Amino acid sequence: MSATVDGDTSRSVPDRVRRMLRGPRPEAVPALVGTACTVVGLIDIAAGIFPRFRHSRMHTIAEVLPGATGPFAAALSLSAGMLLLLLAHGIKRHKRRAWRAAVLLLPAGAVAQFVYRHSVVGVLLSLTLLVLLLRHRGEFAALPDPRSRWRALANFVLMSAGSLALGLVIVSAHPGRTVGNPGLTDRLEHVIYGLFGFEGPLRYSEGVSWTVAYCLGALGLLTAVTTVYLAFRPEHPAARLTHDDERRLRDLLAVHGGRDSLGHFALRRDKGVVFSPSGKAAVCYRVVSGVMLASGDPVGDVEAWPGAIERFMDEAKAHSWTPAVMGCSETGGEVWTRETGLDCLELGDEAVVDVADFSLAGRAMRNVRQMVKRIERGGYRTRVRRARDLTDDEIRQIRRAAADWRGTDTERGFSMALGRIGDPADGDAVIATAHKDDDGTGTSPYGDLRAVIHFVPWGTDGMSLELMRRDRSADPGMNELLIVAALQAAPALGVERVSLNFAMFRSALARGEKIGAGPVLRMWRGLLVFLSRWFQIESLYKFNAKFRPRWEPRFVVFPHTRDLPRIGFAAMQAEGFVNLSLPRPFARRRAPRAPRPCAHLARRPETHEPRAA
Q1: How far apart are CA 235 and CA 599, in angstroms?
Q2: Cα(293)–Cα(572) distance, integer angstroms
Q3: How far is residue 138 CA from its own chain's centroid?
């Protein structure tokens, strides 16, 4: 591997490493300011709600933003605290717009401090925080995240729930000045009326009613203003693969596609892509919950990988996204860690079967052999063909069956899913189908089709398993039958190697069940077996192990250990195990589009869910 950077032969790898390690400046200032905004926001909310707190010894700390001696000042303090809480996360992530909002809010707070409370301490603290923001303005340059107007609905739901909760605290914070003994229903009714600016059923003495009314009105106004802002601000849609991007990626795969079994999955059209300066390498990614998630190795010439990786890291820094890579090979992990200073951890193993070595003979393959023979005696037959050799009617039937046979409501798959079947541009893909004549009733909408598996190209002499679907009424063992059929038909297709699947934490599962395994390893294996009830960890390993594959390790690349939970959660979202979208009755429905060459012919990404036996 060359020691020069793609597009720059004058700089050595160690020099670039040192430069990139120095590039991301320490996040002490944004983290400190964001934390200060959170603490001050909570203090101001408390100062606006609780009268005793406003007049306690902590009042000088609470004066960082507008004070709360009068009804209007209390509402102003509460509003400022809520806004600071909303801005704190964006400030920690270096977001430019959060910085601008804080810069505008702090002077207003300082003025309010002086006008309403004549507090020199409050003014000085507000201005000190403002000076700190202005002094380090270069740290807050991150661009906005991909977003849509659906965030306005999420904001409305969350702000409404928070306003109701805070409203109940507000109306209950004056027990000695409440007339009568109102119940929870009366308090909730008073809150709802107050959020809309109307007077509720509760009555207070000594002017407290004005304070409560101003605070509730401020919460309602904040909910309305933030929702309207999010609804009418310009959209920043997530990056998608364009026709030109796809063409360039296919050109790279035509030359270098045999290096990585996950290379063809870079052609998912819900991914973004960054190319190296020379265009000889690319990294595909998706942004999920602030994590810039790549999968597999970079596509293209290995010597050009550093240039693509540098562009990837620059994009992550520009938006303040957390960079991460899921499922890269050992070579990919070495290049990623060397070029970026990121850390690397083994995630699992990929099962690869060498076609020349595969055979159903022998004791080790007895279970698979017996299952296949039993199914064949039951009248099932198989067909293995390139996608370009199927008719349009067959493709439509397979798509409809694959969609209807999906085992979950949520589409699954990201790192090892293409998201479509039968696209004209994917003519080299291999589709294996299982057929059995029906009982004569002719009620099946799929004819004699009983199961399907789909392989994508892996260079010119390999293929990688993309999905497996079967009719739930079909006999067990359809997946084994079709995989064996595909492996037996592989020589005629010019295929020498087949990537079956990815088994997470395979080595831990394998070592933990052996004699002599230590208590820690056994405990870790026990936890993985427990989690397998939901995530198919053990079942995928055992399913793949039936075919006696060789195991290729795969790795996750990440910045810091503290980022692993966040990256893991984002990966689960990308793979479809965690769904934060709106419930189906409220989800946005898109009208179907007519198929076109090199375009989405499948309606949504396919799932990996049924790939286990």
Answers
A1: 23
A2: 11
A3: 28
H or E element in which residue 130 lies: helix 120-135
Span 373-430, pLDDT tens digits: 999 998 899 999 999 999 999 999 999 988 888 766 555 667 788 888 888 889 999 9
**∠ CA 384-386-388, rounded to 5°:** 140
Asked if 133 contacts 102 with a C-beta cutoff of 8 angstroms, the reply is yes
Token digits of residue 361: 């003979």
CA of 178: how far to CAs of 46, 163, 184, 585, in Å? 19, 21, 13, 43
Do β-strands 497-504 and 299-300 pair in parallel, antiparallel, or remain unpaired? unpaired
Q: Rounded CA gap, 25 and 202, in Å?
A: 54
Pairing of strands 343-354, 550-558: antiparallel
Measured CA to CA, the distance from residue 30 to residue 34 in angstroms comes to 6
Question: Which tokens go with 445?
Answer: 């909408």
Reported as a single tens digit per residue, the pLDDT across 546-603 is 999 999 999 999 999 988 998 988 888 887 776 655 444 444 444 333 333 333 333 3
- Least Cα distance to 387 among 379, 399, 377, 375 occurs for 399
> Which DSSP letter does residue 588 get?
P
Q: Which residue has the tokens 């994590």?
A: 291
Identify which of 82, 65, 49 has the alpha carbon closest to the alpha carbon of residue 116.
65
Instruction: Write down the pTM of the prediction.
Output: 0.69
Residues 6+ positions from 283 with CB-CB distance below 8 Å: 273, 274, 294, 298, 299, 308, 309, 311, 312
CA distances from 115 to 105, 111, 129, 137 (A): 15, 6, 19, 28
